[in-house]
Amino acid sequence: GLILTWMNTRQRKTLESTEALFLGRNATPPFRCTSTNYPLSYGTCHPDIKILQRYLKSLGADLGSYGKGGIDGRFGSLTLKAAQAKLGKSSFDRTAILQLKERLSV
Q: For the segment 38-55, what is each residue's pLDDT rounded down to a tens digit?
């Protein structure tokens, strides 16, 4: 952020190239929690995301291997992709999560 502000374009490209080598050519940066509150969406870390993830798993979604079979309480790229594909949504309020929790208990 602030450090890159004073760098010239050539220095920035060198830094980006170094990061690409370190992370791998097509690697994405590590996941970072940007929110811990509702609505639950990409970047959110919250215990209720596990409800969403369990529901997505019950629909056959592949959530990777973090946590217990992809259920880790972090709304990352795999949770986002599965939520869009299986539920047509990318953001969930408290009511939506409670509805998913009820469906899981039936």
A: 999 999 999 999 999 999
